[in-house]
Amino acid sequence: MPLDITSTTNNEKFTLPPFCVEQYFQGEINVTGVFRQRFRSSPKQFYANIKCEGNAERLVLNEIVRLEGGKDQKRVWKIKKVSSDVYEGKADDIIGTARGVCRDNSIRWSYELLLPFRNKMIRAKFDDQMFLQPSGILLNIVSIRKFSVEVASLVAAYNKVTCNHETHSND
Known about the structure:
Strand content: over 45%
Strand order of the largest sheet: 1-2-3-4-5-6-7-8-9-10
Helix content: under 10%
Shape: globular
């Protein structure tokens, strides 16, 4: 059901779903978004597909990202729950360990990632904020920094893939 924003008042509170990482990242997720580099005039679209499996303690996210005009990038995230609201993540191109902290309907990840740039790999710091919406869509806002200066950003929407097992007859 669409949200009727014309009937909301200033003192009405939104009901935000709590974000449970190990519950959301199960099954398959499609991601669409926009990647913007600081010194480029036009942003680039991207698409990702994530296949997730695991349990309350450990998750494995197999991610394939396709940036407009670029090659597919593959990443396998291994995420471990450290406490009730803290997670750690590792992947081959992550330097050290990513750290995620949950609050209400969101998680904020901080990590360093190796990125391809002009035929070499550079280290960049990621501030990755994800917000679970009442519709089930997960919004992601990412700031990418080098030497404390934002060099790129991205905005993405995560949509869980649902299976439709309806059958149609020719009666």
